[in-house]
């Protein structure tokens, strides 16, 4: 259903029409704007600085990390010389460098979460990126704020419920606690 042959997708049914959204941020912004009963993922519209800070951190994940480290790109890197080691070195280097930038911004903006003390869209994007970095074996020991935030988010029921390892279509061998 996604022209990129990737995930995610959100299918919206309005009357007899079916609309398919295929990009994470478009989906998150749609949910933010259409479901006012949910906890907001962006600070109030009057807080322009914090909204910009959330988007700044979202962009580190969605523009700097994810496009370069996604499976399609990583497999292309491996195909150049046919060595898995090339793929791992390439991907983990980007994960570490960009999560180091996130670490620095956490020092400036962070509280309990990425921006202050409320979960935002930045946190929603951050958690799966760190999980993927760890899955690739990226050494994140030098990033205490990143790892502390990742642990804290992992303790929240909403993040536990949304974790890909517990979804119905996750292969049994990949399921987690």
TrEMBL record:
Coiled coil: none
GO biological process, one term: glutathione metabolic process
Annotated ranges, domain GST N-terminal: 1-39
Highest taxon, organism lineage: Eukaryota
Entry GO MF terms: glutathione transferase activity; maleylacetoacetate isomerase activity
Residue ranges of domain GST C-terminal in the record: 47-172
InterPro entries: Glutathione-S-Trfase_C-like, Glutathione-S-Trfase_C_sf, Glutathione_S-Trfase_N, Thioredoxin-like_sf
A GO CC term assigned to this protein in UniProt: mitochondrion
Protein name: GST N-terminal domain-containing protein
Native species: Penicillium freii
